[in-house]
């Protein structure tokens, strides 16, 4: 049997680097989900009332629904382009463990779709009259939560590659699995805004992240192989 | 068993269904070092399905595939490391240059020097285009870059689906030379093409599909 001479970390880095480089060449695709997130969060105060007390009550819900929808929006592009130009086929034939390469690919996807939401969070917190001391918890919960969404979503994105109406199916598949993230993410934000300690929901989010990061690449790899058939 | 050991790739009684269509009906063949196998047949007869089965994308309903005497299902990644596949799509990112595309495609298997990639691009006649975005290349030039990926993969088994599509006369000649060279160095190539192949100095065999 032929043995490959590229190490696993190097192979993962190459997959990650390629996706980041591609994203910088097509900047508009990357900014789309974060623009959506910002728009949702700024439209609520305009549509309801700019009353700080009201905004503070709805802020956790608005932020987390916006983040969830934005993550769903970004998911569709995770494998679609790679399927169409044949690079996904080549990834499965690289001879490296597919789950490992897809873990790197999902990480790149989070850096491009999840991390911008985390960075935009302070802006949105200010717009929704959230107290300054809650911003740290909000960013941490978003970082953990969008990570979970990327990993769970990668399974759904890979499963729906074969179908032409993939986007509707993808939302139906991913949304129920994403509910715990929405609930605990919003709960952590809510507690932080009341000045309480939000450790409980944050730890739960962290546990979900570890669970999804370790298990989902295996499921995604199996789903990708099925979709290529 | 002595026969199976000598054959690098062996297909035994492959049956493949696509929906209600029985595409491969008990196909068996062997291909050893230095063999070139030309898969022929009319449109829709299953040439691409055969190559995709050999690459491991499609699972035959019956029959099995052996690489160096062992079923490929035993060690899929090991088998993948030994093969290079050129499909209908070129598997190149339109926004990256040929050089960048090839670096990502080959480094993931073996660390490859920039000079090696450049020399392969030169050999296939796309040296001057190496830094242009892939989208700016003509269809024939894209095919040549995709073939450079196969050449750089350091694989023993080449599975080439219509490698001569969009190539001009010089391109067909260059590519034929590359494939013949591969066979001479003990490689195996299985390719589909509608035209007759002119591969000097190599053992060319035909596989007719109905």
Structure, explained:
- The complex is a heterodimer of chains A (229) and B (210).
- With 229 residues, chain A is mostly helical.
- Chain A has one domain (29-228).
- Helix content of chain A is 81%, strand content 0%.
- The two termini of chain A are 25 Å apart.
- Chain B is α/β, with parallel strands linked by helices and 210 residues long.
- Chain B has a domain at 2-89 and 152-208: P-loop containing nucleotide triphosphate hydrolases (Rossmann fold, 3-Layer(aba) Sandwich).
- Helices cover 34% and strands 26% of the residues of chain B.
- Chain B has seven helices and nine strands, in the order H-E-E-E-H-E-E-H-E-H-H-H-E-H-E-E.
- In chain B, the strands form two sheets. In chain B, strands 6-7-8-3-9 form a five-stranded parallel beta sheet, sandwiched between helices. A four-stranded antiparallel beta sheet of chain B has the order 2-1-4-5, covered by helices on one side.
- In chain B, a hairpin with a 2-residue loop joins strand 1 (9-18) and strand 2.
- Chain B is globular.
- The chains are: A mainly alpha (229), B alpha/beta (210).
- Chain A binds chain B through residues 1-6, 10-11, 14-15, 17-18, 21-22, 25-26, 84-87, 89-90, 92-98, 101, 225, 228-229, and chain B through 55-59, 68, 75, 77-85, 87-96, 100, 104-105, 107-111, 149, 154-156.
């Amino acid at each position: 049997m032929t043995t490959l001479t590229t190490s696993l970390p190097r192979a993962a880095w190459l997959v990650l680097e390629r996706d980041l480089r591609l994203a910088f060449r097509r900047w508009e695709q990357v900014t789309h989900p974060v623009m959506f997130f910002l728009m949702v969060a700024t439209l609520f105060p305009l549509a309801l009332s700019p009353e700080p007390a009201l905004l503070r009550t709805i802020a956790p819900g608005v932020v987390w629904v916006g983040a969830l929808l934005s993550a769903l929006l970004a998911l569709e592009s995770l494998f679609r382009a790679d399927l169409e130009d044949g690079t996904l086929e080549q990834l499965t034939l690289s001879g490296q463990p597919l789950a490992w390469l897809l873990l790197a690919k999902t990480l790149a996807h989070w850096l491009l779709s999840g991390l911008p939401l985390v960075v935009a969070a302070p802006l949105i917190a200010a717009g929704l009259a959230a107290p300054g001391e809650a911003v740290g918890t909000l960013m941490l919960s978003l970082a953990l939560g969008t990570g979970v969404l990327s990993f769970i979503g990668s399974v759904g994105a890979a499963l729906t590659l074969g179908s032409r109406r993939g986007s509707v199916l993808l939302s139906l598949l991913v949304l129920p699995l994403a509910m715990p993230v929405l609930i605990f993410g919003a709960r952590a934000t809510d507690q932080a805004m009341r000045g309480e300690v939000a450790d409980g929901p944050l730890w739960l989010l962290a546990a979900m992240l570890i669970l999804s990061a370790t298990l989902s690449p295996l499921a995604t790899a199996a789903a990708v192989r099925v979709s290529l058939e | 068993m002595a026969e199976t050991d000598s054959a690098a790739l062996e297909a035994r009684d492959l049956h493949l269904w696509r929906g209600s269509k029985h595409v491969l009906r008990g196909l068996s063949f062997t291909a050893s070092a230095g063999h070139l196998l030309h898969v022929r047949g009319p449109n829709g007869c299953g040439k691409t399905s055969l190559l995709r089965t050999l690459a491991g994308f499609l699972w035959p309903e019956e029959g099995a595939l052996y690489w160096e005497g062992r079923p490929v299902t035993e060690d899929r990644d090991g088998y993948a490391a030994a093969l290079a596949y050129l499909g209908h799509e070129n598997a190149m990112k339109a926004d990256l240059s040929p050089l960048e595309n090839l670096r990502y495609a080959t480094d993931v298997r073996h660390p490859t020097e920039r000079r090696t990639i450049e020399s392969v691009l030169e050999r296939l006649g796309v040296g001057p285009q190496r830094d242009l975005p892939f989208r700016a290349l003509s269809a024939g030039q894209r095919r040549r870059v995709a073939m450079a990926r196969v050449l750089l993969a350091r694989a023993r088994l080449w599975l080439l689906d219509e490698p001569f599509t969009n190539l001009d006369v010089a391109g067909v000649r260059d590519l034929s030379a590359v494939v013949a060279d591969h066979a001479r160095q003990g490689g195996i190539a299985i390719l589909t093409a509608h035209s007759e192949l002119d591969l000097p100095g190599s053992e060319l065999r035909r596989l007719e599909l109905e």
